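WARN no homologs supplied; continuing
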Amino acid sequence: MNNPLLENESLPAFSQIRPEHIEPAIDQVLMENREQIARILSAETPPSWESTIAPIEELNDRLNRIWSPVKHLNAVANNEALRSAYNACLPKLSAYSTELGQNEDYYRACKAIAESPEFAELDQARKKVIENTLRDFRLSGIELNEQDRERFKALRQTLSKLTATFEENLLDATHAWKKQITDEGQLAGLPESTRALARQIAEREGLDGWVFNLEFPSYMPVMTYADDAELRREMYVAFVTRASDQGPHAKKWDNSEIMEQLLATRQEMAKLLGFNNYAEYSLATKMARDPDQVLDFLTDLARRSRPFAEKDLEELKTFAKQEFGVDELNAWDMSYYAEKLRQHRFNLSQEALRPYFPVPRVLDGLFQVVERLYGIEITERKGVDVWHEDVQFFEIRDQDNRLRGSFYLDLYARPQKRGGAWMDECLIRKRTEKGIQDPVAYLTCNFTPPLGDQPSLLTHTEVTTLFHEFGHGLHHMLTEIDVPGVSGINGVAWDAVELPSQFMENWCWEREALDLFSSHFETGEPIGDELFTKMQAAKNFQSGLQMLRQLEFALFDFRLHMLEEPVSSAQIQALLNEVRAEVSVIKTPDFNRFQHSFSHIFAGGYSAGYYSYKWAEVLSADAFSLFEEKGIFDRATGERFLHAILEQGGSREAMELFIDFRGREPEIEPLLRHSGLAA
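OK structure emitted
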């Protein structure tokens, strides 16, 4: 039978991919790759870039091209058959990458090239690929004895299964809970958009009234606006106990043991390689030098932020008591009274801004922003095969009409699609015999879908999320590096990879930019001066509390991965409590099991790396401060950022590239100023 995964020369044929295609395609490519790699490495001639590294990179890119649509479908159109096929492939892919990472012939070939006269002749990108490859060989256990190497390989496979199980438990626990409401009185305080979404979910499930679930577009508005404290409490308990030993589905999809096993597996891997703990292992590929530097950075930021957070909390408590007679704020009251205080102080709610951010207008304005900054043009291309009717496809061209990249845009929440927002690679930029393979990205969000004839209306926070993910997309698509290993986001230090995304968020707060992507969806009126002034005034509302919340997550993650002995789920909880006692100013309920759904560190790539968000925020705030000096649409500064950061991919060290752009090392002051935390 024809397998659409194997015949994909350019864009994936999503409509033709079936679960039964997946495993045979992966089996075939893995078999062919192994045969060809063996042939390449057994050649009589001395190894060189062209004869050894380039063809192996090409084979790996072919594997990525086939796996990428599968991995993507598993995230955006999940079903039992697909999940089963996806899971069947995970151990095979893990075994393959571990084998390649421990292939002594390949290691010796790379070492020989690095020590040969040819190395000096290579360009910077190719040198960097070889340096990274040698580093990654060491990190994948190449220098271990045979017994330890086999053990390391087994641990890698275990890790890949455990992270998938963690994510599945969380997905199942999230989708298992729902709340049907038939008494409209219980909806008091909820905005019309939230009610309409709840009605839509109820209709979809064949139920009367309104249905709420734990997906973000449903959960967050209840926590923020519902006057019914009991409804807020019920949803809060369900949300913060997902996949744990607590709450309405206690122990059903419990991630407790999975976390213990994940940490033990990571610790053993790190120790086998001679690191004291997994945090040290993680930093081997990052900008930060050592664990002390990360801990100092986080504790210093916490120390500077704490007085602001204490003031934020005191204001909130005083307001809730004076205006509502509330003596004690529970965890499920925080967002609700914070929103009331925001409205009281600034007479502004996220919902009041929604009508000004219809999706078509936001997209058009976002494209105009990057057009002004980098001289590129973005246009929609119809007729591309997609996985859902809501998905759009766009092309990016530069001033010479040269195609620079393309992207799929999947904006709306729906069943079988995992929550959150992300950018992922479909194709990477590389040079082939036929010319350049242009990069293609997936940009995925979970916004409220259009309701009836009305376009999807975004909150300002959602607009910021879209800009953020688009920043990642530009980093992937505007690269000028043709070598796969360091093209786009590849080879970029993890704690610098958020620089382009957080950098883009800054334009969401600038009047000149805002006018491009906002206007009332019915009247076409722009956001007036009064509303804009309120937005600016409210920008850093409670930013002390928000900063401490992120630092609590980052410190918990990092300290957890600095542990040198296996820990129980109770000890994980104890460490989180300890970090909270040191950092947080808010009391968390005992039943809260935040860690059980902390997929960033247990299922994503952020283990011992969650600090990267704040680290990169220092970089992005400092980078943007140059635009504040020169003008936010200053083309010369935009092109400088394009050439120094976006086009360079991972071809050079992140610090070098930053200094190229900024003329000096990063400074923390712009971040404190932008966050309203400057002394």
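Residues 291-324 form the longest helix (34 residues).
OK
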